[in-house]
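Hey,
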Amino acid sequence: WAYARLDYIDKPLCDAIAAVSMARLSEFAMQNLTNTAWAFAPLGFRNKPLMDAISAQSLPNSDEFIPQELANLAWSCAKIGLLDEHFMSAISAAAIGIISEYITQDLSNTVWACATLVFHHKPLLDAISSESISKL
């Protein structure tokens, strides 16, 4: 992957996409929410209002996410350096419930996000450790 440098990003375009996305988040399926967060993250484009809106839309339905979606949300937050403790705690709680469904990439992306954000959620880290050992 070659990540774009911030000076090559069309900020007005990204802001416009973020604004349209925020206006329509209630229509998004869970995968659309995670894809939106994930799409901006490699660009280093940090739009806190958009991420707050994605968080607000996701939280009531966090038990509907599949492992890849949870891992991608955590990864996206970490990639842009956005620590929302409440959102990460909800992601963690949802992840613990389905940790046995995680593939190794989901496990590694989630633990990388926690480490990058210096987010210590012991039950999640214990679950990731246990699941990782079982996959060896």
